[in-house]
Amino acid sequence: MKLYYSPTSPYARIVRVIARETGLISQIEEEIAKTRVHGTDYFQITPVARIPALVVEGRLIADTRDIAQYFEDMSQTVWIGDETPLAQTYRQVAIGLLDGLAVWSREAHRDQALRSDKIKAYEKERAETALPWLNANSFACREWNFSGVALTCAFEYSQRNALDVDWAGLAPDLMAWMTTQMARPSMQDTRAP
Ligand SMILES: N[C@@H](CCC(=O)N[C@@H](CS)C(=O)NCC(=O)O)C(=O)O
Predict the structure, then answer these.
(1) Segment 110-119, tens digit of pLDDT
(2) Parts of the chain belonging to CATH 3.40.30.10
(3) Span 85-184: which CATH code?
(4) What is the C-alpha to C-alpha distance for residues 3 and 12, in angstroms, rounded to an integer?
(5) I need a surface site. Which of 10, 98, 108, 111 has the fewest CB within 10 A?
(6) What is the position in ligand 1's atom list of the atom closest to the CA of 67?
(7) What is the phi-psi region of residue 39: left when phi exceeds 0, alpha when psi lies from -120 to 50, beta otherwise?
(8) Domain 2-75, what fold?
(9) Whose alpha carbon is nearest atom 11 of ligand 1?
(10) Ligand 1 center to residue 36 CA distance, Å?
(11) How many angstroms from the chain centroid is the CA of residue 138?
């Protein structure tokens, strides 16, 4: 199977980490996809040209969560599993936080004249609201599962893109836990250069 990614995408990193943790990486060819370029050949792989995308025997899986679910099924390990209602909400908030950070980063990297302070401020508010919630609920959900991987990737992504969020102040317990996860070989192996 072939996994399309970009070295800086936090979404791709989630499934690249899980691929390594499960050992499935030995069956996966990873290829850097050319996104956000007019006329890119990548549209022939996936009609929405987003990463990550996994192609297995001609079948396209074009969503992070669904790729993780596929890896779970293939490896008989649990990354999403049968979630409790709280664990499900936790995952949704974790990914919602990451979605907001991605918008914020994209905004921050646009041409200076096009950047919107309003959008950046709103995304900062979203992150600053999500983090205390994630911290408060982490007693039940702090696990090296899909949400845990997503949050750790989201943290490193926000650091790399210099997004001004006080993770340690807003989510101290979560931060302490993530710090130990960042040392995992799967995280080191997928860290953006
Ligand atoms: N909902 C998608 C989001 C993936 C996503 O937004 N990926 C970004 C990279 S971080 C992307 O492909 N961007 C290229 C583009 O927007 O054209 C998922 O969960 O897989």
Answers:
(1) 999 999 999 9
(2) 2-75
(3) 1.20.1050.10
(4) 9
(5) 111
(6) 20
(7) left
(8) Glutaredoxin (3.40.30)
(9) 50
(10) 10
(11) 18
